[in-house]
User: Which sequence fits this backbone?
């Protein structure tokens, strides 16, 4: 079996991490995208705060299944995956965890790779919002469309792999140092 990973992106209805209203998954085997899946999800609450960002409202998801049945349908895409990739991975990891916990489903044990950190380490990019990274790499993006965002993450990982393969061992050291430079901002006193 070829090396495989899955890129994932969630859109949420409100500040609650359990409020996923859309998910996009993109499966990569070797260096090819082999599957794309997008689903709307009925979140546990009717109140939507982030419609202005992603355009999804309660009326779009009221008749959709909740997270549990959707995830059971999508989970086979993770079979054999080495890791999950996401932009600002801590957000998507926390949404996946909260939604699985609320649905009484085991949280996948896969490691997350953050494409925001990967872009900083590979290309020394700042800012590293998803549209900025896609612009730098020449990728099309329909930002806040879950499957478009997930596909962008998959393409970022693939582009970083190509860069890594072209570099010699000595040339890779600055990338490692750049990755180590990524830290949480200090609190102001």
Assistant:
């Amino acid at each position: 079996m070829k090396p495989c990973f899955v890129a994932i992106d969630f859109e949420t209805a409100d500040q609650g991490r359990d409020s996923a209203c859309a998910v996009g998954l993109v499966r990569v085997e070797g260096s090819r995208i082999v599957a794309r899946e997008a689903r709307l999800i009925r979140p546990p609450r009717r109140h939507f705060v982030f419609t202005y960002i992603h355009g999804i409202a309660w009326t779009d998801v009221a008749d959709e299944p909740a997270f549990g049945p959707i995830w059971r349908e999508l989970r086979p895409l993770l079979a054999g995956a080495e890791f999950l990739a996401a932009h600002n991975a801590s957000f998507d990891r926390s949404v996946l965890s909260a939604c699985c916990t609320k649905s009484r489903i085991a949280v996948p044990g896969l490691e997350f790779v953050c494409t925001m950190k990967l872009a900083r380490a590979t290309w020394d990019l700042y800012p590293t919002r998803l549209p900025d990274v896609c612009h730098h790499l020449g990728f099309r993006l329909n930002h806040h469309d879950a499957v478009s965002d997930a596909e962008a993450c998959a393409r970022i990982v693939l582009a970083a792999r190509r860069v890594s393969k072209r570099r010699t061992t000595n040339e890779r050291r600055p990338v490692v140092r750049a990755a180590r430079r990524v830290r949480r901002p200090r609190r102001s006193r």
Remarks:
- The domain at 4-181 is CATH 3.30.420.10 (Nucleotidyltransferase; domain 5).
- Confidence is low (pLDDT under 50) at residues 172-189.
- The CA atoms of residues 42 and 159 lie 34 Å apart.
